[in-house]
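--- STAGE predict ---
source: upstream dedup step, 1 unique chain passed
mode: sequence only
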Amino acid sequence: MSNKPEKNIEQFIREDGRFPLEAVQFVREALHHAVEKYHPDPSGPSGQRHVSGAQLCEGIREVAMKRWGLMARPVLHRWNITTTRDFGEIVFLLVSNGWLQKESSDNIDDFNDVYDFAEVFEHSFEMPLGD
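--- STAGE serialize ---
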């Protein structure tokens, strides 16, 4: 397989049709957040910059809550993302089109039921206190 993806992101996202481009861009951004959170030293071996499905889901949750607060769940729902499995579907869509790499142990099932959207995006939300 070549290092350069054959299709641009817009093209394969449109062909796939499950998620809008904004959702894919958001997951990619949250992936960078998760990598920085779990592997802040970029000088380490490249394999040590890998994050698990659960770690990525946690990074996505953090970015979504910071950006949208209580509106995170409706925003994700508008993008056809209703479970953590959907994050995995986006990740593996990027992998299958050459935009991300995976470890041999990575599996789409790593994204199954990592957390419940109602619990993490609604019930556990805390308003930040002002100074």
